[in-house]
Design brief:
Layout lengths: L1 E5 L2 E8 L3 E6 L20 E6 L16 H14 L5 E6 L1 H12 L4 E7 L8 H17 L2 H11 L3 H12 L3 H12 L15 E6 L8 H9 L4 E5 L6 H4 L1 H8 L4
Parallel strand pairs: 3-4, 3-5, 5-6, 6-7, 7-8
Antiparallel strand pairs: 1-2, 2-4
Helix pairs in contact: 1-2, 3-6, 4-5
Bound molecules: D-malate (MLT).
């Protein structure tokens, strides 16, 4: 992986393919390998940039206090480094929250936006408290209980569930804590949606046990020009569970 220094942290990324610049942002608590299986289907149309968000994978964070906007600023710094002015920004789940923050901060740098298994809403009070409880649990006892709770909810496919679990187990506790707090403090992006005049793609499995497909349908209702790909039988990681359908939908951003 390539590594750069940006915003006081070390950011690692992969870059593959040729075509429209496309940033793929992984969700919580994973890294860019989430996109490995779909990547070969995208490389003919896109210049694909795959960062590890700060703290995750090969990227390092200096502390655990940052926001979705900080993750987004890291992506902007990476695009600056690569001399790319505009890109399609696609995020999976928490990566979608980062993509929305990026669109809020840098609308002129977005050629298209994709949300995979994500949502525009902020956390309600109960969910927010749950995040802080999980962050304290990770600080005191490590990542084990978050992994145990989340891994079975990613997918019913045993091979892919093992992949998700191993990926979660590779991540640093500090990355969990930072991301849990950043997710708890994120703002509601619903009011932002009407300002999107670029192509928008929504990809969501109808068996997603972490973020229900209704969240994608609500965005589609607010944004009729969005392309919604509902993936029958897929859970939270359609880019692995149904890679052809995911790649086909993402090509609307080429
Ligand atoms: C993710 O997959 O990134 C998380 O489940 C998102 C969330 O917890 O809101």
């Amino acid at each position: 992986m390539e590594k750069i220094n940006v915003n006081g942290i070390q950011l690692a990324y992969e870059r593959r393919g040729k075509g429209t610049p496309l940033v793929l942002l992984h969700g919580f608590p994973l890294d860019h390998h989430l996109w490995d299986e779909v990547l070969p289907l995208l490389e003919d149309k896109f210049d694909v940039i795959l960062p590890d968000l700060r703290g995750f994978g090969g990227s390092r964070a200096v502390d655990s206090f940052y926001t979705m906007e900080d993750y987004a600023a890291d992506v902007a710094g990476l695009l600056d480094h690569l001399d790319i002015q505009k890109a399609a920004i696609v995020g999976h789940s928490m990566g979608g929250y980062v993509a929305l923050a990026f669109a809020r901060l840098y609308p002129d740098r977005v050629s298209g936006l994709g949300l995979v298994s994500s949502q525009a809403l902020a956390d309600n009070e109960e969910r927010k408290q749950g995040r802080y409880k999980s962050a304290a649990e990770v600080a005191d006892h490590g990542i084990g209980s978050v992994v145990e709770t989340m891994a079975p909810k990613f997918t019913s496919d045993q091979r892919l569930q093992t992949f998700a679990r191993e990926s979660m187990e590779r991540q640093q506790p500090a990355a969990y804590i930072g991301a849990l707090k950043a997710m708890a403090e994120r703002v509601d992006s619903t009011p932002l949606l009407s300002s999107f005049h670029f192509p928008v793609v929504l990809i969501h499995g109808d068996a997603d046990a972490l973020i229900p497909i209704d969240r994608a349908r609500e965005i589609k209702a607010a944004l009729p020009h969005a392309h919604l790909a509902e993936i029958p039988g897929a859970g939270h990681i359609p880019m692995m569970e149904s890679k052809e359908k995911t790649a086909k939908a993402l090509k609307h951003l080429a």
